[in-house]
Automatic annotation (TrEMBL):
Species: Xylanibacter muris
Keyword Transferase found: yes
E.C. numbers: 5.4.99.5
Domain of life: Bacteria
Name of the protein in question: chorismate mutase
Uppermost EC category: isomerase
Keywords for the protein's UniProt record, in alphabetical order: Transferase
Length: 262
């Protein structure tokens, strides 16, 4: 099936790739606002924060849910940044839209589940905001494309893909193996589909963010989504891979973009 796409136009500076930044999780109003203010001050245009968090094991922080949505709205009102969050159920979609979310993304665990994806796609009928679909946790390109086809069939045309790496038992270097050949093949199959790199979940640790961002640019990715927290060591989820807005700004200043995106 062919995807029927409309251009995904997201704000960025000087023809640089767009960057979505913000904490893994929206932990408190203070943490969300402080991180957002610092990011906005560094020129970031799109904020991310997880409101509903899929956790591997029970008992961890599973997100503040609806309580966090007014904080996100405040980010938009105060800083002018666009706001984005992960949705995994029809109820999440409804609530995210109610609070004025500008961009939705689908997490890797949801993309891997066709029933969940279909329910999500049905709930997206009639929405006109961009939806970004992360690759499934397993290296299955067809499952990734299938998830996007479901959403596209529901009428969502502003689509993008997020490459966040693939789960593996061997975690020597990466938290999730990049297997770059898979997003490259996705680009070959669907040239008009923007592809965004998530170095945070690929790398799993701070030191890998800069080289992964550069690698993504060298490979012609259209944008980046990077986890950034005002106090990364104290983050309630994914602490090791988050960087301060200051460090993120420094990393981005070092990135060389050789050509305009593909
Ligand atoms: C996230 O972006 O914080 C997240 C949970 O990502 P993924 O679905 O890629 O694991
Ligand atoms: Mn995370």
């Amino acid at each position: 099936m062919e995807l029927i796409l409309e251009p995904l136009i997201l704000p960025s500076d000087n023809k640089r790739p767009f960057v979505i930044a913000g904490p893994c999780s929206a932990e408190s109003e203070k943490q969300v606002m402080e991180t957002a203010r610092q990011l906005a001050q560094k020129g970031c245009h799109i904020f991310r924060a997880g409101v509903w968090k899929p956790r591997t094991k029970p008992g961890g922080f599973e997100g503040n849910g609806e309580t966090a949505l007014p904080w996100m709205k405040k980010v938009k009102e105060e800083t002018g940044m666009l706001i984005s969050t992960e949705v995994a159920t029809p109820e999440h979609v409804e609530l995210a839209m109610k609070y004025g979310m500008d961009i939705l993304w689908v997490g890797a665990r949801t993309t891997a589940n066709p029933f969940a994806m279909q329910a999500l796609a049905d709930a997206m009928k009639g929405i006109d905001i961009p939806v970004l679909v992360k690759n499934p946790v397993n290296p299955d390109l067809e499952l990734w494309i299938g998830a996007m086809e479901r959403i596209n069939q529901a009428g969502v045309k502003k689509l993008g893909a997020i490459h966040r790496g693939f789960s593996s038992y061997d975690k020597k270097i990466y938290r999730n193996l990049p297997m770059w050949q898979i997003p490259i093949e996705l680009h070959r199959r669907i040239p008009d589909l923007p592809i965004i790199c998530d170095p945070s979940h690929i790398g799993g640790r701070r030191e890998l963010i800069a080289p992964l961002c550069q690698q993504a640019m060298d490979l012609g990715f259209d944008g980046l989504i990077v986890e950034s927290h005002n106090d990364p060591d104290k983050a309630w989820s994914d602490a090791k891979q988050q960087v301060t807005p200051d460090v993120l700004d420094y990393i981005l200043s070092l990135i060389v973009v050789r050509s305009e995106t593909h």
